[in-house]
TrEMBL record:
This is ABC-2 type transport system ATP-binding protein. GO terms for molecular function: ATP binding; ATP hydrolysis activity. Transmembrane segments: none annotated. Residues 5-227 form the ABC transporter domain. Pfam families: ABC_tran. Keywords: ATP-binding, Nucleotide-binding, Transport. InterPro entries: AAA+_ATPase, ABC_transporter-like_ATP-bd, ABC_Transporter_VariousFunc, P-loop_NTPase.
């Protein structure tokens, strides 16, 4: 089957800082891929390139066989690593905003996600805690019927209960015709979600593979492999 993402010799420089250095990566349809690395390893840069917010300095990125552009933006649902809603909005406004922007937004799914997250439409964005923000943002992003979901640090900065809810929402709403790329440095909490993992260090892929195969090969959890690589 054709990969949903094909990345060839991808590099990204910010002035004289090289954030991504010759990345080669294929993501198969139907897979959940974890991109693992500490702060500054290049995770957000990679995600932003896939989401069409940043342009690479070198190399090729194809999503569903297309260069990043209008078409790929219509099939990629992107969760940024920070809040992206306006302060004047209520949750209902955020829903309307998404519905106007994305034809693939499924309002029934959004309603079910809100119920699951225990959020109400009348709540104001400014009144939400960090964890509630994350839950709302994720609910919006997962309610799109996208071919590829790219989630940047979906559980960073939220408490353990909210974390579990967020992970359950991802698992329950994942459909096997789509793919997901999720960045995190909270490996222990997320590793069971991943089919494949990619370890990113200083903008380079230092190890990648099927999560189960890596566990067997190294007789270690992915979290322990992460600690070994990054010396945490
Ligand atoms: N706009 C920018 N201008 C200059 N350097 C940048 C810019 N954005 C990122 N960088 C640098 O590029 C490198 C990779 O950053 P990136 O944000 O992609 O890493 P990350 O793995 O997502 O880190 P974090 O977990 O802290 O978000 C870092 O060294 C960072 O300082």
């Amino acid at each position: 089957m054709k990969p949903i993402v094909e990345i060839k010799d991808l590099s990204k420089n910010y002035f004289n800082k090289r954030a991504l250095d010759n990345i080669n990566l294929s993501i198969q349809s139907g897979k959940v891929v974890g991109v693992l690395g500490p702060n500054g390893s290049g995770k957000t840069t990679l995600i932003k390139i896939l989401a069409g917010l940043l342009r690479q300095s070198k190399g090729e990125v194809l999503i569903d066989g297309h260069e990043v552009g209008v078409y790929t933006k219509s099939i990629v649902s992107y969760l940024p690593d920070r809040n992206f809603l306006y302060n004047w909005m209520s949750i209902q406004d955020a829903c309307d905003f998404y519905k106007d922007f994305y034809r693939d937004f499924d309002e029934t799914r959004f309603k079910n996600l809100l119920d699951f997250m225990k959020l109400e439409r009348s709540m104001k964005v400014t009144s939400l805690s960090k964890g509630m923000h994350e839950k709302l943002n994720l609910s919006l992003v997962l309610s799109r019927d996208a071919k590829l979901y790219v989630l940047d640090e979906p559980i960073a900065g939220v408490d353990p209960v909210a974390r579990d809810q967020i992970l359950d929402a991802i698992i329950n709403n994942y459909n096997e015709n789509s793919s997901m790329l999720i960045t995190t440095h909270l490996v222990r909490d997320m590793e069971n979600l991943f089919d494949d993992v990619v370890f990113l260090k200083d903008g380079r892929i230092v190890l990648e593979g099927n999560a189960e195969a890596l566990r067997e090969e190294k007789s270690k959890q992915i979290d322990d492999i992460y600690k070994e690589i990054f010396g945490e």
